[in-house]
Amino acid sequence: MNMVQIEQIFPSLTWRIRHEAMYPELPFDMVKLPDDFDGIHFGLYLDHKLTGVVSLFHDGDVYQFRKLAILSDTQNAGYGSQLMDYIIDFCKIQKATKLWCNARVNAKEFYFKFGFHETDKTFFKDGYDFVVMEKEL
């Protein structure tokens, strides 16, 4: 049985996971967000190894999560779902009213499982189609 632990982490710890899992073909610095040091970042440790990350940003009581990433060799094992459950609970504790994200269109089914719905806002960036998805809390 694998041991999973989720904890708040320093922003720079997210960069390697983001790069490896989301944009390995792009320059490393591309995964750094200008507002990373204004966010709240969580890491999922699998047997003490940082394996997944997600970053939260808020404007009042509306929260956005960005760069949910799980290393490819551990994807489809439920770790992304554990991170999603964690940040949804975190947002509820913070009295958030809404949680939203820019979801890759090819991953939107994942977010439906957590009660997110699609908006009519779509865009194309870095070679991917995105749709804004949100969930009322």
UniProtKB/TrEMBL annotation:
<dbReference type="Pfam" id="PF13673">
    <property type="entry name" value="Acetyltransf_10"/>
</dbReference>
<feature type="domain" description="N-acetyltransferase">
    <location>
        <begin position="1"/>
        <end position="137"/>
    </location>
</feature>
<dbReference type="InterPro" id="IPR000182">
    <property type="entry name" value="GNAT_dom"/>
</dbReference>
<protein>
    <submittedName>
        <fullName>GNAT family N-acetyltransferase</fullName>
    </submittedName>
</protein>
<dbReference type="InterPro" id="IPR016181">
    <property type="entry name" value="Acyl_CoA_acyltransferase"/>
</dbReference>
